[in-house]
Here is the input.
Amino acid sequence: MNTLSSIGVFCGANPGLKPVYIEAAIALGQELGRRGLRLVYGGGSVGLMGALARAAQEAGAPVVGVIPTPLTAREVMGQPIGDMIVVDTMHARKAKMAALSDGFIALPGGLGTMDELAEALTWGQLGIHAKPVGLLNIDGYYDALLQWFDHGVDEGFIRPHHRKLVVEGTDPAALLEQLKAHVPPPGIVKWMDLNKA
Here is the structure.
């Protein structure tokens, strides 16, 4: 059982074309507040990021945004939501979010979301962290990605136990319960051990 007090959420700075994406972001924010969990997110006040952070803050969740200086003009409109940490680069943003989070969830998003998700999974694969990583698969948004993970296993590029690093669900409350119960799959080689090899 994982002790989750702080959840890093990766998601789009755009709202997407379907209202269900914004609704899911709001529902996740409300669930974080209901559980007294801290939200760590990309710092934007627009798109899914803004909807998520506003809902979490309104539900009583502590909110911490991490944003690179070059994106402040593009992704922060009006008052920042929660405590804001401004960093120099995208690399620094990911590292800071990882340091502040006990687990991760990806809502729908674009290339930036994929970058953050892939790094969280890669770090889990390498044993750099043992934090659970979840996909909130709204309206089948991540179906093709999940199929690609399975294809990677079938083609010998993703080991079957690494495929189990991804926890998936369609409901925020149920996904958070899965993250709490998630156990890293056996066979993960710790980063320290890789360095000794």
